[in-house]
Amino acid sequence: MTGLRWFLGITAAAGAAGWLAIALLGNEFRRSFGASGTDALTALAPPAAMLLALATVLLPAYRGLLHASAVLFALASVGLVWVLRESLFVGICGLSFLALWFIYYWRAAWS
Known about the structure:
The chain is mainly α. It has four helices and no strands.
């Protein structure tokens, strides 16, 4: 259980930081070619979800946060199935992370 918490926490923190860095740097790069920038939902929703996952790993005693996150992550998994049509790698990585998070949720909230 501790190893799973460490893996989820490190992955969520690194993923959120990486996504924000790519969104900020990539947005300027896209604009240099005359393309439109990335919208705010695309730039901020995935890191917000990753930081929410990080919060649940750091604060497992708050069951309300765990349950609210489970509902949001269930909706995110539906969205990731849609992402599978566009990018197989990103969809599989996201669904794998959420599958591990739901294992953590089951052990933290119901055991």
